[in-house]
Design a protein that fits this description.
Radius of gyration: 16 Å
Largest sheet: none
Helix content: over 70%
Structural class: mainly alpha
Shape: elongated
Number of strands: 0
Number of helices: 4
Order of helices and strands: HHHH
Distance between the termini: 21 Å
Strand content: under 5%
Length: about 130
């Protein structure tokens, strides 16, 4: 998912920033999940982080759309962002329903996928001359 030659630098930067934000919020969620076991503030922080993570996922979808249509990029990141928003929705519902046997592994998967997306968006294409 590197920047395409026709994609504007501004939309590519916005897309990278939203994926980075999403990845950071997922790391925060993993940290606060550990705090749930040791601190009385863990639940509050994890709940706030869940809202921020969901917002970051929506922002990623917006950035992917802007990078495609007005930005001139490929529509492929829209698919990734949409799937990620669906996973985030499932994650929130599983957290509310207190199903840690699925919630925790899904969170690990989401963090890994977000790291992969971040790496893909930060790789610059090599020119062959």
């Amino acid at each position: 998912m590197p920047t395409t030659p026709t994609q504007t630098p501004a939309t590519a930067t916005f897309l990278r920033a939203t994926v980075a934000l999403q990845t950071l919020t997922l790391f925060f969620q993993a940290t606060t999940a550990g705090l749930l076991l040791t601190s009385s503030h863990g639940e509050l922080l994890h709940g706030i982080g869940a809202r921020v993570m969901y917002g970051a996922s929506m922002l990623y979808l917006l950035a992917a759309t802007l990078a495609w249509r007005p930005g001139g990029g490929t529509p492929r990141p829209i698919l990734y962002a949409t799937v990620f928003l669906l996973l985030a929705s499932a994650q929130v519902l599983l957290g509310i329903a207190h199903v840690p046997s699925v919630h925790v592994p899904l969170g690990v998967l989401m963090f890994g996928l977000s790291l992969l997306a971040l790496a893909a968006h930060t790789v610059t294409p090599r020119r062959t001359s």
